[in-house]
Amino acid sequence: SHSINLAVIPGDGIGQEVVAQGLKILAAVLPQDVKLETEEYDFGAKRYHATGETLTDADLDSLKKHDAILLGAIGDPSVPSGVLERGFLLKLRFAFDHHVNLRPSKLLPGVATPLAGQPEIDFVVVREGTEGPYTGNGGTIRKGTEHEVATEVSVNTAFGVERVVRDAFARAQSRPRKKLTLVHKNNVLTFAGHLWTNIFNKVAAEFPEVTTDYLHVDAATIFLVTDPARFDVIVTDNLFGDIITDLAAAVSGGIGVAASGNINPSGEFPSMFEPVHGSAPDIAGQGKADPTATVLSVALLLRHLGYEAEAARVEEAVAADLTERGDSVRTTDEIGDALAARVAS
Amino acid sequence: SHSINLAVIPGDGIGQEVVAQGLKILAAVLPQDVKLETEEYDFGAKRYHATGETLTDADLDSLKKHDAILLGAIGDPSVPSGVLERGFLLKLRFAFDHHVNLRPSKLLPGVATPLAGQPEIDFVVVREGTEGPYTGNGGTIRKGTEHEVATEVSVNTAFGVERVVRDAFARAQSRPRKKLTLVHKNNVLTFAGHLWTNIFNKVAAEFPEVTTDYLHVDAATIFLVTDPARFDVIVTDNLFGDIITDLAAAVSGGIGVAASGNINPSGEFPSMFEPVHGSAPDIAGQGKADPTATVLSVALLLRHLGYEAEAARVEEAVAADLTERGDSVRTTDEIGDALAARVAS
Ligand SMILES: CC(C)[C@H](C(=O)O)[C@@H](O)C(=O)O
Ligand SMILES: CC(C)[C@H](C(=O)O)[C@@H](O)C(=O)O
């Protein structure tokens, strides 16, 4: 018999509410003989205010022992911008080498989109998670004076780029359309751009069945709204990936249904699964949050741990629920219950 | 009597075709007593292949003498990515200190948009033009090896940020809604983010009538497709501005109608006006290009040179043409003729 030892980080705002539903669905979908153990961690604004800590070495040691991590959302207006993002979210992604940030986008029939004509959308973005402008490299001199200079350094390594590009090619290879688009800005960011482009072309030679193309990030945003059907798999840098996956979420059902996995493919560290949305303090505690993104993140978590059939069942339940929900207004809990009932049956 | 001494850079691909229409409209709209002198420059792929040059010091000396510059498009697949972008376009923006990159977005009634429900769109993006990740700072070590490291450095100065933020506040102040949104990623790019945010807040205190808000760049892309009406004036960094203005163009009538001005507000160097679109080699030479973006760039040029009434006439002509064009298929020349007839009458 199997077991899953899960770290649960509800976090701030609606994080608490959506994670509760994610766990409900997880419990409902797992076979009886799989033992689910969960340990809850109190990271986020409350702990920061109480202790000044965001994520300590001891925390990392403890998290490391789990098979995977489910996260709700971290962030609160009471904490200065950047403190929890850099001090917790990014620190964890870097510490656990979550270099494959997986963000699927699929527009289901009947689901609202701001785009006219209900286009076909079914692609996945593979966002690099441990390099680029996210490394925290850079600094400030003469802070607060009229002579202040602030720099941000995007760091890109052959090692880091090649492993994520390989992952993306393998994913493209396994999908029916077998198409991979590199998104960058290699005509302006020529140093990083050459590195990404050269490695992309080199690896492409090993995947002759995969059709490739290249788009500048600005052009990619255009196609995401005018012709999203052209995308199958996209591989891109950390910052470009951050930007285009929010746009991708917006056009394919909204941020309420966008899931993500921060994956360490080697398994050296546990991977982390989280909705793309934030803590939404404006609606927190009111039972208004849509738990769908978290539930779809649970599906990614199940797939990552080898529970493919269960992952598919969760995704089918969500698809059915989304297609049938129409204009109905349901609470977070009601949506969770409906999904739990679907996966159990 | 007045005169305009204009540098004309048709450039590559459809640049030639659209600039011809821009000049047609300029000639048609200017009062008889304004003498229009134009000097054409051969920058772009052809000259690069013939001479290896993109933009020399002598070129800059010559361009400097003009009142303004009208540019079509620069870029061709026969030239390695980055050579003309960095060697011509960006070199010129930097050499002439074009720090205010103005990009208006207005969706006219009846104009096609990928968004459902024909939302109201009427905002302008003030993109910083001489700093951020566009400076060319950075480099590569161990190029081509498995140990390659490539960096890109975003450089942000109090001087550079404050002048563009002030420009944006002044623009917001002069518009009916008086609203300014700062777009950045200050929770991750904390060095540059603090600089932008602090200066934005400092200058805001001098413009009490202007309502302000802040959005992370990823969230901004969401609102650009779900609620573009919320924007009035946006101020942002060079790279974020590049990305969101392509998306803004896509939702507000397409890249065929998006104009831009690379402005040196002090007048120390001539400002440059250009369509946001590129050279589109796939449709070049076929009379298929829409010259509207260039014509609207001519309107920005006229306004910059003090010809407000003429600028408005051009914009009204374009608005009327766009609203009435329906599904008609016209050549580049036909659209130009129609617009010239409208502004002349
Ligand atoms: C909160 C922030 C650090 C994060 C990011 O920029 O990666 C978020 O926007 C995301 O996309 O997961
Ligand atoms: C061609 C390129 C250098 C340019 C930019 O990135 O600024 C273009 O995309 C633009 O927006 O004018």
Which features would summarize this protein structure in a list?
homodimer; 345 residues; Isopropylmalate Dehydrogenase; ten-stranded mixed beta sheet; 11 helices; 12 strands; binds 3-isopropylmalic acid; NAD (chains A, B); leucine biosynthesis (chains A, B); 3-isopropylmalate dehydrogenase activity (chains A, B); manganese (chains A, B)
How does this structure look, described?
Chains A, B: It is an enzyme of class 1 (oxidoreductase). The first copy, chain A, is an alpha/beta fold. The first copy, chain A, has two domains: 1-106 and 257-345, Isopropylmalate Dehydrogenase (3-Layer(aba) Sandwich); 113-252, Isopropylmalate Dehydrogenase, CATH 3.40.718. Helices cover 41% and strands 21% of the residues of chain A. Chain A is built from eleven helices and twelve strands. The first copy, chain A, has helices spanning 15-29, 45-51, 57-64, 83-95, 158-173, 190-204, 217-226, 238-251, 292-304, 308-325, 332-344; strands at 3-11, 35-40, 68-73, 100-106, 122-128, 138-141, 149-157, 179-184, 211-216, 233-236, 259-263, 271-275. In chain A, the strands form two sheets. A ten-stranded mixed beta sheet of chain A has the order 2-1-3-12-11-4-5-10-8-9, sandwiched between helices. A two-stranded antiparallel ribbon of chain A has the order 6-7. Chain A starts with a strand and ends with a helix. In chain A, 55% of the residues are buried. At the A-B interface, helix 4, strand 6, strand 7, helix 5 and helix 6 of A face helix 4, strand 6, strand 7, helix 5 and helix 6 of B. Strand 7 of chain A pairs antiparallel with strand 7 (149-157) of chain B. The complex binds 3-isopropylmalic acid (2 copies). One 3-isopropylmalic acid sits between chains B (85, 89-90, 242, 276) and A (187-188, 218).
